Amino acid sequence: MQYSIVNFSEFKADDFRIDAEYWHPDFIENAHLISPSQRMRDFVSSDVLNIKSTPLNRDFAYLRSSQISPRSFEYKTTSVQLGEEPEQAYYLLQKGDVVVSTVMPDRNAVALIKTGGVVGSSDLAVLRPNGIQPEYLLVFCKTAYFVNCLIRANKEDLYPAVSIRDVLDTALFVPSDSFEALIVKAVKTSIFDINRSKQIYAEAENLLLSELGLTDWRPKSRLTFVKNFSDMQRAGRIDSDYFQPRYEEVVNAIRNYPGGSDTLGNLVTFKQCAEVKTLEDLEEGIPFVRANDLSPYGITAEKYISKELYAETQEHQPQKGEILLSKDVTPGIAYYFRKRPKRMIPSRGILRLKTSNDKVGREYLTLVLNSILTQEQVQRDVAGSSLMPRWRSDQVAAVLIPLLPKEKQVEIEQRLSESFRLRNGSQKLLKYAKEAIEIAIKQGERAASNWLESIRRNHSGQDKTKTRNGTYYAN
């Protein structure tokens, strides 16, 4: 049995929490790691404009908390036209702002804003650094200490959420100049590496598109066009979206490619993944991968199954060299296992693909599946479907894949390998920076700095990434 003895004087008048969970010994121990004398609000500016009181009168990029990756610091925005502003669109963000999701604090979605003019949703806490480096603040907000503080502050069971005040009231581990510089350097190197990774990935994709004469092609829907009745008979569909000329342009470019093409069904074998009707409400365990957990760069599972359920479904365990491809909810997202994957079970909304011949390389095929070539075919197939898009297995098998010459595929795959090497190194750097702050919180900066130095020594002479200033960081 665990229990806590709490003095009545410790109860705050403005937040009178008497629930046992709030006073759990683990939370109390976590709260005592840092002196509350210096809080987050003491190092950020409160001067953050919002579009309700300061209208933009222009189109803008919009960021919601759900668009921030919990696995990294990356985020996506959506374009919003003037007059169509979502109700939640609120904060006018600046370059260098750190944003923290106030919903589902255990998910720990945190991002560093890269450009100004982005509008953030009202479920974000905006930290505009004042007297501390944004890179340090970014990593601090990913530490176990910070996450536990927000989980403790949560007052809702059904829909976990905290207030902006909860974020600002969190005690901050204020670093010395030298320790802060170490963290900032690691983050900046990581950002440089991830940007370079994206650039190289784009180069690989451009090599593919240039072979098909689609380098500058952009999808554009037409309001009117003419199709023959025989086309509708062959397709077995009459919805206009399916026959948008943009889809035909892509398919014709693949079909007419001099090197030839083939259907995905002829190039791979398919395996259906597991159907788990009832998921256990577990906070940890073996990842259960759903379709929307996939990205071309990784897997972020937020649901777990027990060892017992895994034993019943382990025939669906992915293997090295296989490709996972989503067909439901977010159809057409592919991820390739370059290494032997950890234990996991993909959901029924995902297909396991294994190449059945040597016409295509695995990494090349994964790039094609994630490229605009396949994405346009996916959009055509699921056009007019319900709010829950479903890509049928026969439609997946019919996807056209261009067969580039082997030497061109190898050239593309070399770029992809370099891109993922840089991405993995970038993620490790951020992980090391986070762990260094966690060590500093518990053991002091000297121990954290020594740990970082040991990491550098252990990885010297191994796989390294060289930055612009000649500094090496281990991958």
What report would you give on this structure?
The chain has 475 residues and is α+β, with helices and mostly antiparallel strands. The protein has three domains: 142 residues, Adenine-n6-DNA-methyltransferase TaqI, Chain A, domain 2; 66 residues, no CATH class; 188 residues, Alpha-Beta Complex (Adenine-n6-DNA-methyltransferase TaqI, Chain A, domain 2). It contains 14 helices and 21 strands. The strands form seven sheets. It has a four-stranded antiparallel β-sheet with strand order 1-8-5-6. It is globular, with a radius of gyration of 25 Å.
Strand content: 15-25%
Assign the structural class, choosing from mainly alpha, mainly beta, alpha/beta, alpha+beta, or little secondary structure.
alpha+beta
The strand line-up of the biggest sheet is 1-8-5-6
The beta-strand count equals: 21
CATH homologous superfamily (4th level) name of the largest domain? DNA methylase specificity domains
The CATH class of the largest domain: Alpha Beta
Shape: globular
CATH architecture of the largest domain: Alpha-Beta Complex
Radius of gyration from the alpha-carbon trace, in angstroms: 25 Å
Average pLDDT number? 84
Overall structural domain count: 3
CATH overall fold name of the largest domain:
Adenine-n6-DNA-methyltransferase TaqI, Chain A, domain 2
How far from one another are the termini?
Answer: 43 Å
Relative helix content: 25-40%
Summarize this entry quickly.
The protein is an alpha+beta fold and 475 residues long. It has 14 helices and 21 strands. The strands form 7 sheets. A 4-stranded antiparallel sheet has the order 1-8-5-6. It has a 4-stranded mixed sheet with strand order 3-2-7-4, with no helix packed on it. Strands 10-18-15-16 form a 4-stranded antiparallel sheet.
